Amino acid sequence: MSIPKNLASKYTRLLTLWPTDPLRQFTFRTVLQKRLTKHNESASRTQATTTTTPPAPAPAPVSPQQQASEVVQINALFSLVEDRYATKYKLSEKYTRPRANPEYYARLMRELDEAPTRSRFSNWVRSWKGYLRWQ
C-alpha cells in the first residue's frame, strides 16, 4: 500500500518538527520514519521492474477510507506537535505549584534535563547519596 505524495510530504514535515526524546531508546520519530520508509519502499518496488527478476506484486492502492484515516492521524499528530491543547487548556498555578511541595515540578524538569548527560559514575554517586543520610 503506497500513500499519496501529499500525505508523504506531510509525514516528512511532521518528522522534521517532531521533538527528540533523549530519555527513550525508541522514539516516536523512529516509528514514523519506519512507517514512511515502508510505504516508500512498497511504492518504489512497483516502479522498479527489471528483466531478470519477476515483477513484484503491485501494492494495493489506498482506499478513500484509509486515506481519510491517514489524514485524521496526521492532523492529530500536528496538533500534538504544535501544543494546541496546552495553549487551549492552560493549567492554573495551583496545579503546577502545589502548596505541599511547590518546587516539585521545577526539580523534576531539571532532573529530566540533566539525566541524558550524566555519566554512569555520577548516576551511581547520586543513587548512593539517596541511601546515605548525613545529619
UniProtKB/TrEMBL annotation:
GO cellular component: a single term: Cbp3p-Cbp6 complex
The name this protein goes by in its record: Uncharacterized protein
Q: Where is this region: Disordered?
A: 37-66
Q: What are the leading ranks of the lineage?
A: Eukaryota, Fungi, Dikarya, Ascomycota, Pezizomycotina
Out of the domains of life, which is the source? Eukaryota
Extract one GO BP annotation from the record.
mitochondrial respiratory chain complex III assembly
Composition bias, kind Low complexity: at what positions? 43-53
- Species of origin: Pseudovirgaria hyperparasitica
InterPro entries assigned to the protein according to its UniProt record, in alphabetical order: Cbp6
Tell me a Gene Ontology molecular-function term this record carries: ribosome binding
